[in-house]
């Protein structure tokens, strides 16, 4: 099977997505997600100008060889743009191979290791009452595990709150589906770490009191803390038995997690902005984390992320693959197939896409009683409606950024 056509398709139904579509000389097609939130066109250029010309005429069956060729021949390795582009190629080739075999991709990865994938949703609120209502709504939708994000008194607009005041003021809608705002410049949010550290433990105490001890709860600090602040947060949340505490410090500082580990037994999830096994090498080997947060879309595809997770399995570290709406339905399907097959699956992030997105990407996955399953169609089980995608051209959009009260730019 020779690749004889490669198309890079950009569409913006509920948000911007970048999809690579490969077609073989015998008519099989495969699609891969290349979306890099807020920097989508950088990956488009990388694919169109540098990768697509290298794919034409290659054997679509040679997935590993193609991966190594794209990674090693560029000389400038890794990075989110490169690895998102390689991920799109890799995922599209797995999609083709599954269709050629007449099997879903998870069967090619060794078959199912479980019946379904436990998933968590995103509950949030500016107030405790609003947060409780959001938790109840997610439980009614079937979620068995819930991430809790809360407003902080004195802060107008912070990460993770669907009813974010800044976003509502600009667009008139909640950002359940996408925090990246369409426009020429990113929006500015505010931050105060001391206020946050004082407030969050009380919120989790209230959530536990309202919803009981059995509900798995997660929380995302979103890279905004220093190591000692992260240690303080982890320790203060120990009484509330979190499933995990995510991205407590900026991910570039690997050694920071040693200090955090010394002071708290709260499980740690790290890595949604990582893009290769080299980002994880030290923190897996030293067992400084409990869950790998990378997405198939940003970590070199199914082939590479499986290697990361196989390495993590040696240290009893599990998967917690990134899965908000900046991962397209194609990337989500890839995560489901990988998660279903590996032994050390932990949990899958699952944030529902909007209705327009579901019309562009026709999906076969199921959601039943809190568990995801990718379905049993050959390949990934997702088809791109090119005509529908054409109705929604790219719109410039940026994720927000943070400033402290004194005007200093802070981690978002």
UniProtKB/TrEMBL annotation:
A Pfam family cross-referenced in the UniProt record is MR_MLE_N
User: Which SUPFAM superfamilies does the record match to this protein?
Assistant: Enolase C-terminal domain-like, Enolase N-terminal domain-like
- GO terms of biological process kind: amino acid catabolic process; carbohydrate catabolic process
- Which molecular function GO terms apply here? magnesium ion binding; mannonate dehydratase activity
- Residue intervals of the Mandelate racemase/muconate lactonizing enzyme C-terminal domain: 128-267
Identify this protein by name: D-galactonate dehydratase family protein
